[in-house]
Amino acid sequence: MTWSATSDPMVSIKNVYKSFGSLDVLNGVTLDVMKGDVICIIGPSGSGKSTLIRCINALNDIQSGSILVEGLEVNDPNLDKLELRKKVGMVFQQYNLFPHKTALQNIMMAPVRVLKQNKKTSEAAALELLKKVRLEGKENTYPGELSGGQQQRVAIARSLAMQPDVILFDEVTAALDPETVGEVLQTIKELAEDGMTCILVTHEMAFAREVADHIYFTDRGIIVEHGPPETFFKDAKDPRTREFLSQIL
Amino acid sequence: MSYKTDLPVMLPVKPRALEPFKSLKKRHILLIAFLTIVGPSLVFAQTGEFEKSPLAILLDWTPLLLSGFLFNLVISFGAMALGTFVGGLLGLGQVSLFAPTRASSWLVTQFFRNAPWLVLLFFAMFLLPFELNIFGFKLPLPDWFKAILGLSLPVMANVSEIVRGAVRSLPSGQWEAAESLAYTRRQTLWLIILPQCVKRMLPPWMNLYSILTMATVLASIVGVSEVMTLTGRALAAEGGRTDLLAPFYGLVLVLFFIYCYPIARFTVWLEHKFSVIN
Amino acid sequence: MDFIFEWFRTLYSETGVNLPFIYDEYDRKRMAEGLLTTIWLSLICLFFSVIIGVIGAWLQGSSLKWTRRIVNGYIQLFRNTPPLVQLYFFYFAIGTLLPRVENDWGGTSPMLGSFAWAAISLSFFAGAFNVEIFRSGIEAVPKSTVEAAEALGFSRLQIYRDITLPLAFRVVIPAMNNNLVNLVKTTTLAYAIAVPEMLYEANQIWSDNVNVTEMMIFLLLAYFVLVGVLVAGMNKWERAMKIPGFG
C-alpha cells in the first residue's frame, strides 16, 4: 500500500490509445497499480473508464501503447489470453452469471474446465468462497432465484475461484437497488482488506473515500487528475475535476 | 419471486434478417441452375456416346414442363382460396364464446393439423366419388379437383390456427376498450379486432401459400398430371436415360425456387414492415 | 389376445367394418413394421437434422463471407423447393450417379437403399429449417454472458459448448417442437420411393382388402395419436429443461 519506487507495479499502463472506428475513446492513458492497491477510477460517462479496464484483460484491443500485467504484455499479438485471465479477474455490471447452472456450479465451472482442477477440490473451494461472500445455503439455487445483490456476490466469488492476482470491477453496483449496494460493497471491502489488488470503476464516492488507496479521474479519454482520497476530494486542482465532484457530491 | 434489480437473463428471440442478397440474386439463381442442370449433363457429355446433349433435350421438353408447372399453380390457387375461406370460418369458431362451437372448431383444426398432407390427399382422392349426383345432374369430379379439395384440408387447419393466433396476439386492452364503448362482440370482432389482425396474419399466410405450392407436387403420387408426372413421362419417353435425371429434376427444382424464393423474401420484408409499426 | 382379434373378425362379418391389420396376423405384422419404420425414420432424421442445424448455425457465425453465403444458399435452396422433388433428386439423380455394388445373387444394386436416401434427403430438408432456429437461439444469448465466460478464460469452443449451446437450446425448444412434428408428417413422402413406412403399408393392406375408408380413418387417427404423444413428450421435456427463475 505504499508507493515504493523499487518494486515493480502489478499493472502498468503506458500511453494507451484506443478508438472504436472513428471515435477516440482513450487518448494516452498512463497508470500504475502496485500490488495490494485499491484503485478507483471515476469520471463522467463516455470518458473511457469501462473501456480502460476492459483493455486490461484483453476484452478490447488497443491501437497503441502498452499494458503490462505482471510482466505479460497485453498488446502482444501472440499473447496467451488464458495466462492473462488466470491473473486478472473481472466482475461486470450485469453480473452475467450463467443462468442454467446453480450458484455452486457457476463458481466451480471455470476452475474445473479451464484450470483442469479436480472436481472435488473445486467444489470444496467453491463452498468456502460462498461462505466468504455470505451466501451459505445458496449453493443449489439458480441465478434467476437470487436477488441482484446476491447474484453480484456470486459473480465476485466466481472470479475469486480462479485465484487471480488483480480483480477488475466494472460499475458493479450501478444496477442494484440501494439496499443491496451495501452488501456488495462490504464484500469488496473485505477483499481489499485481505490484500487483493482491486481496480474499480465506480460512482460510489463514499466507498472510494473509505477504501481506495488512490483515485483517478478520467475525462474524454485521459487521466485529468489523480491522488489519494484525502487530498483528492478536498483539494482537487483541475477545474474539470472540481466541476465533476461538485455535481456528484 | 422476481426482483426489480434483475436485468434480463436472456434476450427475446428475434426473427433474423436475411443477409442482404440484393446484388447477388441473379448470380445465385444462375449458379444453382448451372450446378443442377448443366453440371451432371456436362459429366456425361464428355463421353460423346449420345447424339443430342441432355441440355438440348431438356430445352425441347421445357414448354411442356412449364405448362405442367402452371397447372401446379392453378391447383395452389384453388386450394388456397378454398382453404382460406373455410379456415377463416373455423378460426372464428375457435374464438367463439359459445363453448361447443369453440370445442368442435378446435378439435377439427387439431385433427387436420396433425395429419400428414399426403395422407389427407389420399383421403380426398380415394374417398370422394368420381362423380356427384345432385338432383339427377351428374357432376364429374376430375382428379385435379379432388386434389384441390384434398390440399385445402391442411390449408384450412393452418389458416384456422393463424386466425386464432392473430386474434389472441392482440392486447386485451383492445377488447376492453371496445366493450366500454358498448360495441357488441360481433361489432368488436369485425370492426376492431379483425382489421388489426389482417396485418399480423399476412406473413404466416404467405408462408403457408409457399408451403402449399411446394406441396402440389404430392398430387403426382396420386396420379394428377402436373409437372412431376409430366417429368416422369418425359424421362420415360426419352428411354430412361440416367444422365437426363439430374437436368430434368433440376429444372423442376429451379422452377419452384424461382417462384417461391421471391415470395419468401417478400414475406420477410412484410414481417419487418409490420413489426416496426406495431 | 386371440379373442380380441376374433372380435374384430366378427365385427367385419357383422357390420362390414374391415380392420384386417388387427385380426390378420400377416397384416398386423406389416402394419407394426410400418409404424416402426416411420418412428425409426423420424428419429434418424431428427438426429441428423439437429447436427446439421448446429454445424450450420456455427458456420453462419463465421467471419468468412463465402462460408456464410454457402450456408445461406443451402438454406434458401432447401426451404424454397418441394421436399418431394429433393427426394427424387437425391434418390434418382444422385443415386444413379453413385457406383453400384455387388449384391448376394451376383447382380449389382445401388449402394444406398431407398430408406437411406429418404433419411439423407429429409435430414437436409429439416436441417435447413433448424439452422435458422439455432442461429436465432444463439443470438438470444446475451453478449455480456459470453464476455463473462471469456473473462474467466474459457476458449471459444468451450464457450460454445458449455454456455451458448445449452442456453440457446432451451430458447429454441418450442420452435424445435414444431419442426419435429413437421418432420414426422414429412416422413410420409418416403412412400414415393417405396420405403415401407406406415402409409405404404396401409396402401398395401387396402390394395389387398379393398377397405380404403377404414384404413384412411385409421391412418388419420394413428398420426393424430403419434403427433399428440410427441407434442406431449416435448412439452414435458420443455418443462424439465426450464431454467428456474427465468421466463
Provide an overview of this structure.
- The complex is a heterotrimer of chains A (249), B (278) and C (247).
- With 249 residues, chain A is α/β, with parallel strands linked by helices.
- Chain A is 37% helix and 24% strand.
- Chain A has a single domain (11-248), classed as P-loop containing nucleotide triphosphate hydrolases (Rossmann fold).
- Chain A is built from nine helices and ten strands.
- In chain A, the strands form two sheets. Chain A has a six-stranded mixed β-sheet with strand order 6-7-8-3-9-10, sandwiched between helices. In chain A, strands 2-1-4-5 form a four-stranded antiparallel β-sheet, covered by helices on one side.
- The longest helix of chain A has 16 residues, at 178-193.
- Chain A is globular, with a radius of gyration of 18 Å.
- The mean pLDDT of chain A is 88.
- Helix content of chain B is 72%, strand content 3%.
- Chain B has nine helices and two strands; from the N terminus they run ααααββααααα.
- In chain B, strands 1-2 form a two-stranded antiparallel sheet.
- Mean pLDDT of chain B is 80; it is low at 1-9 and 18-24.
- Chain C is mainly α and 247 residues long.
- Chain C has a domain at 36-195: MetI-like (MetI-like fold).
- Chain C has helices spanning 2-15, 20-23, 25-60, 65-79, 83-97, 114-139, 143-151, 156-186, 198-209, 212-241, and strands at 100-102, 108-110.
- In chain C, a hairpin with a 5-residue loop joins strand 1 (100-102) and strand 2.
- The relative contact order of chain C is 0.13.
- Chains in contact: A-B, A-C, B-C.
- The interface between B and C is large, with 54 and 56 residues.
